[in-house]
Amino acid sequence: MSYAFDCILASALVTVIEYADGAPQRRRVLEVASPPRDASSITRLPSLSWKHFLRDLKDGGIEQVCLITDEAIDSTFAVSDGELPSRPPSAEPKSAREERFATQSWDALRESGNPVYDIAREYADVFPDKIPAELPADRGVQHEIDLVPGSKYCVTRQWPLPRDQIKAIDDFFEDRRKSGHVRESISPHSSPTFCVKKATGGWRIVHAFNKLNDATIPAQTPIHRKDMVLNSMSGSVLFSAIDLTDGFYQILMRPSDIPLTAVSTPSGMLWEWLVMPQGLKNAPATFNRMVSHVLRPLRQFAPSYFEDIFVR
């Protein structure tokens, strides 16, 4: 969200045009007691460090973020609130999502005349719609869970859930079992499972690894600088991006840590993960390490930033 301001220094009235997704949403006039009139006045305003900004934003202490510019507003832009377009929904409609995915299909790639089509079809086995129903290969990086010395068993009791969510959880684990990603467990550890409604419908299966994460030693993994990743792509004329399918499930758990991943279900089952599940404290760091490890020989033309892989 950004705001454009049309300010006359002699006046304390400020015209505010609120934008969302590039479209004007609302027009207001605000009265400012003593607006800053030059750059030095602005630089003397109270500041907030980015760490405190992120903290306050997460805690709800910041309700709006405004971008103040000296860009002039077109005088012909004068519409009432009723003439402004309605706000776009916060969630992408399912139909729009399906249409967007359709444009990324093999047929769409061929019909568009994209020169990448022939080479992509030659290596179609690395572009599956779903990952193979088997354990992934050991690519040299496994997810490890190192606990703080003296940590006790990490156990949180499973709470009851509605029937439709119980069925969604049972179906999810049956599918993961057939894929070889989970197995029945007798671990002394246990974290509950619950559901979160997806924006496009259906349920997302989530594990409450709170106690396990609190007892986990944070991983210290180097993170690529965004500006260096962008600078490495300067001078290129063709760009593409790779989105990994079920990326976390392509990383094995360290065998000794598998019992720590045990999760319960409302139907009374206890499962443990053989691949890296979502929700673990150091999972993003492990994923970043895996991508960097696999793409190390290709870093000159395939830089990465966590799950984002760019090809130039």
UniProtKB/TrEMBL annotation:
Region Disordered, annotated ranges: 79-98
Keywords assigned by UniProt, alphabetized: Signal
Pfam families the record matches: RVT_1
Cross-referenced InterPro entries: DNA/RNA_pol_sf, Rev_trsase/Diguanyl_cyclase, RNA-dir_DNA_polymerase, RT_dom
Stretch forming the signal peptide: 1-22
Chain ranges of the Reverse transcriptase domain: 177-312
Protein name, as recorded: Reverse transcriptase domain-containing protein
Organism taxonomic ancestry: Eukaryota, Sar, Stramenopiles, Oomycota, Peronosporomycetes
